[in-house]
Design goal:
Elements (H helix, E strand, L loop, with lengths): L26 E3 L2 E4 L2 E12 L2 E13 L2 E6 L2 E7 L4 E2 L10 E3 L3 E3 L3 E2 L2 E2 L3 H11 L6 H16 L12 E5 L6 H11 L9 E5 L10 E4 L39 E2 L1
Antiparallel strand pairs: 1-9, 2-5, 2-8, 3-4, 3-12, 4-15, 5-6, 7-14, 9-13, 10-11, 13-14
């Protein structure tokens, strides 16, 4: 099934690079990542290549309800509902609903073996801005902000070997929320290990990467070292209005 596949027309290999280098890549094999059938479509984006400008419609996160089984930074998930899952890269496909029993998780901003451009900013978006999104337009704005943060092409000329960049659509209904979130993002960054950076298929590396915020550590009573809690029930995460579930999977069309 298709979602962001048409952007694969961009020629050459796409290298997602951080402004700074990661000292190490922390990965652990997950028992299971399940992606639910709810998502947003369309999220309108603008693709630019030189003087060519295309409007493209994307299927996007938050994907849910989604669950995870495995251990991340000592926090054990047992078929546990997780924070809404957002799409990271535009150059692969992912089917929904779908199960990924051998997914790998990085806590160093790595997807499909490549470092995510501006991963610290993306971590801040997922940690601080995404929880504010309770409407479809706001959630679309979060997804657009993630993509433009990664693919604006401003920080690394190697991000687009053919000069392409992706920006938000100023005519889209999400745009006012997007500009507000963009201003809030500013130059903020968050620690990369506050986010699970998921590679669903680590063998072929041809499935779209996903990311979700990890539960924040809670300080124990009486002081001491903060501990990561057992993730809370789904009802506390999925508080926005239900999105329409399309069991055929994420689909993307060019306008």
């Amino acid at each position: 099934m298709n979602n962001f596949s048409q952007l694969s027309k961009l020629t050459g290999a796409v290298a997602l690079v951080l402004a700074g280098s990661c000292a190490f890549i922390s990965q652990a094999y997950a028992d299971d990542l399940y992606l639910g059938s709810n998502y947003i479509y369309p999220v309108s984006m603008i693709e630019k290549n030189g003087n060519t400008v295309n409007t493209v419609n994307e299927g996007a996160g938050p994907i849910g309800p989604s669950t995870f089984t495995g251990t991340i930074l000592g926090n054990t998930f047992n078929n546990t509902p997780i924070n809404p899952v957002y799409c990271v890269d535009l150059f692969h496909n992912v089917g929904v609903p779908s199960n990924w029993p051998t997914a790998t998780v990085s806590t160093a901003g790595v997807i499909n073996g490549l470092s995510v451009n501006n991963a610290g900013e993306v971590a801040y978006i997922l940690d601080a801005i995404a929880p504010q999104a309770t409407t479809t337009n706001q959630e679309a704005a979060v997804q657009a902000l993630i993509w433009t943060t990664i693919y604006d092409g401003s920080n690394s000329p190697t991000t687009y070997v053919d000069g392409n960049k992706v920006t938000a659509d100023s005519n889209a209904s999400y745009y006012s929320s997007y500009t507000g979130y963009l201003a809030e993002l500013g130059s903020h960054i968050a620690a990369l290990d506050t986010v699970a950076w998921v590679t669903p298929d680590p063998v072929n590396k041809n499935v779209q990467g996903q990311a979700f915020a990890l539960p924040a550590p809670v300080a124990p009573l009486g002081g001491g070292v903060p501990v990561s809690p057992v993730p809370v029930p789904a009802a506390l995460f999925f508080v926005g209005p239900a999105l329409v579930g399309l069991f055929g999977g994420l689909r993307r069309k060019s306008a």
